Amino acid sequence: MTQQCYHCDQLIPNDFQCSLYLQGAERFFCCYGCHAVTQTLLDFNLSDYYRYRDSPNPKAEQLPEDFLQDLARYDQPAYQQQIAVSHPEDNSHEILLMIQGIHCAACIWLIEKRLSQIAGIKKISVNLTTQRAIIIWQESEIKLSKIIEIIYRLGYQALPDLQIEQNKISRQEKKQALIRVGLSGLMMMQVMMFSIALYLGGWSGIDKAHEQFIRWCSLFLTIPVLFIAGRPFFTSAARAIRNRYLNMDVPIVAALVLSFIASIWMTVQDGKEVYYDSICMFIFFLSVSKYLEITARYKLSAPFMYQALMPLTATICHEMSESLISTANIKVGDILLVKPAEVIPADGVIVQGDTTVSESMMTGESFPKAKCVGDAVLCGTHNIDQVFKMRVTEIGTQTLLAEILRLVEKASLYKPQIIETTHKIAGYFVGAVLLIAAFTAWFWSQVSWEESFRNVISVLVITCPCALSLAVPTVVTCATYEFMRNGLLIIKNHVLEGMNQITDLVFDKTGTLTLGLLEVIDYQLLNTDTIHDPKALAYLLEKHSEHPIGCAITAYCKPYASQMAVSDLKIHINQGIEALIDGQKFRIGKKSFVSALFAKGRDEAQIQDLKKSCYIGNESGFLACFTLIDPLRPHAKELVAYCQQRGITTHILSGDPSLEPVEIKEQLGIDFVKHNVTPDEKVAYLENLYAQSKKVLMIGDGINDAPVLKSAHVSIAVHSGTALAKTSADAVLLSNALKDIVQGFEVAAKARRLMIQNLTWAVVYNVVALPMAIMGWIEPYQAALGMSASSLVVIFNSLRLAQKARH
C-alpha cells in the first residue's frame, strides 16, 4: 500500500523506512530531510504547526461574507500587481501589510511564529511601532489570500499598504482611541466624586443606605468603562490565552477582573472596600497612554508622511478653462497648472513655462533646481518662482515619493538582535509577574485578605513589559525616517546597526569623491596666426560626441559656435575626432593623435603634456589646448575629517590608471589609496580588510562598483550613479552630498544611545517599582499611573531622534 509523507504529502518510496512518533501515532517520511524538519519542530516545541495544518478550524464557517469576498481579489493578478512587488529572479512576491490588533511584542511573536511555519513563506517580519509586516512568499506554494486568512484566524486583520486606505484606517483607530479616553475620563471623574464621599463618610460616618446607593451608582458607571474603554485589553488578553502564550495585557486584565469581581462582591455583601475608582482610573491612564502611542506611531507612518507632503487639491487644465480637483482624482496624462509656493501633486514633465523647484524633501539638497520645458518634476516637491504646466506621468503609489516611503517603511521593519532579545525577555517577564503576584497574595494573606488583594492588584498593574518591548523598535522607526530626511535612503535592513560598527571607509574616486563631470578650467591659445577661433572649431568637432570630455568642451565653447561646413567627421576610439572644416583637416583629442597631422618635433616638445588636457590642431600644428578637471564633490574633506576624528581609517579604491587618486589622497588627507584596480581586485582588497576583523563602509557609484558594494558590511551608492550600483547597495545617497553621510553616522550613534537609555529606564523602573508594590507601598491607582508613564517615557524619548527634522 502506497503511503504519503507526513510532512510534505509526497509519496514514500517502497524501499525507504523513516519514521517518528508524533501526536499519538507513528508518522512516516519520504526522505531524511522531511524527517529532520519535523524533528526540529518537535525539538523547539513547534509541533502546533501540524495541529494548525491538519485540524479543521471550527471558525471556518464563521468567516464574514464580505471578508471571504475580499479574500478572492488578493489572488487576482491585476490587484496583486498594485499591492505587491514581484522578484522574477526566484519567482517570489513581496508585500507590505498593515496588521490591525497588535498590542505588544507577544502579538508579533505569535504572528511571526505561525507564519514562519507555513510552507512557501520565505520571510515574515513585523514592526511593533508601526504595526506593519513585510512578507515574502512563493506564489506556487501558497496563495496570498491564504496568508491573509491565517492572520485573520489568529485574531488580527491584515490590509495592503495602500496609502489612502491605510490613512483612513489609521485615522479611524486614532478616533476610537480618543473616544475611549473621553469615555473613561468622564466616568472616572464621576466615580471619583462618589469615592470622595465614601472616603469622607468612612471617616466621619455615613448612612448605610446612602453608602450602598453610591456603590451601586459607581458600579453602573464602571461597567461601560470596563467593557467599552477597556475592550482592547480584554480582546488582546483573550487572543493570547486562546493561542497559548502570555502578553502584557494578561496581567492587566487579571487585575481588572479581580478588582471588578471583588468590588461587586463587596457591594452585594456590604463589605469594607470597593475598587471602582481604581478600575476607572487605571483604564483612563492606559487609554491615554495608548492614544499617545497611536498618535506617535501614526506620525511616523508612511501614509501620514505621504498625506503631510501632498496637497489636498490640484488645478487641472481643460481646453478653455481650469478647475480645482482632489489630488485623489488626478489621472495619468492630465495637464496640471502649478503656481508658485504650491506642492507638485504628481510626477510629471513640464510642458509650458520655466521655474525653479525645491527638491530638498526628496534629496536633502538645499539649493533649488532650475526647470524648463521637458524637465521632470517630482511629486511632493515645491514650486518656487513661476507658474508652469505639467503633464502627469505617475500618480499615487507609482510616484517616486511613494516608492521612497515604501522603502523607508520596509527598512523600518528591520529588527536588530537586541529587539529579538528584549521580546523574549518581555515574554518571560509576564510569566514571572504572575508568579510574583501569586507569592504576594500568599504573603499578605497572613496579614489580611484586604491587604493581600490590594497589593496583588498593584503588582499586576505596575509592571511594564511593554516599555521593555518598545525600547528598541520605536528608536529604529524614528532613525529610519531621520535617515531619509537627511538625504540617505535606507534599502537594506542592517544599515542602522552596521553604521555604529564601521572601522574603515572605502571610497571609489570618479563620481564619488569627484563629481564625475569634467569641466574646462583653462584654455591656452598655442597659435596666434590662425584665422579661425579654435573654440569655434572645437565646438563643431565635439558637438556630436557623448564622451565626457567632448560634453565638457562643447559646453565651454558653445558661446563661440559658428556655421562653418563640417564633413568627413570620424571618431577615433580613445584618441579623438577628425573632420574637414571649410575643406581643411582638423583634429581634437590626445596630444599624440593631433600631432600626427604635422611634422613631429617642430613645436610638440615646447608644449607641456598636461594631465586631462585636450588639444586641437591642423596640418600646420597645434592651435590650442583645453585643460579639464573632475571637480571634487562638495564636503568630501568634511567627511574625511569626520572619519579621522572618529578613528575610522579611509581608503580610495579606483580603476583610474593615472596619478589623480594619489593627488586626491594627499589633498583630502586620506590614509590609503590603490588605483588602476579591477572590480575583482576591489573585492579582494575588502576581503583583506575583513581578514583583519575590519568593518567596512563602501561608497561608490559605477557599474564596476557593484561587486564591491555587495561585499561590504555597509554600502552606500551615490544617487547620481548607475542603476546597478544603487540596486547593489544597502543605502542610496539621495542628495549626492557627502555631508549627509556624516549626518548618517550621527543619527546611528544617537539611535544607539537612545536604545540604551530606553532599555536602562525600562529595567530600572521595573526593578524599583515591583518591590515597592510587593511591600504594599503603592496604591493601585498609583500603579496604573506609573505603568502608563513608563511606556510614555520610552516613546517620547525615542521621538527625540526625529524632533530636529520636524521643526
UniProtKB/TrEMBL annotation:
Keywords: ATP-binding, Cell membrane, Hydrolase, Ion transport, Magnesium, Membrane, Metal-binding, Nucleotide-binding, Phosphoprotein, Translocase, Transmembrane, Transmembrane helix, Transport. Coiled coil: none annotated. Its EC number is 3.6.3.54. One of its GO terms (molecular function) is ATP hydrolysis activity. Residues 93-159 form the HMA domain. Its main location: membrane. It is found in: Cell membrane. Signal peptide: none annotated. This is Cadmium-translocating P-type ATPase. It comes from Candidatus Berkiella cookevillensis. The gene is copA_1.
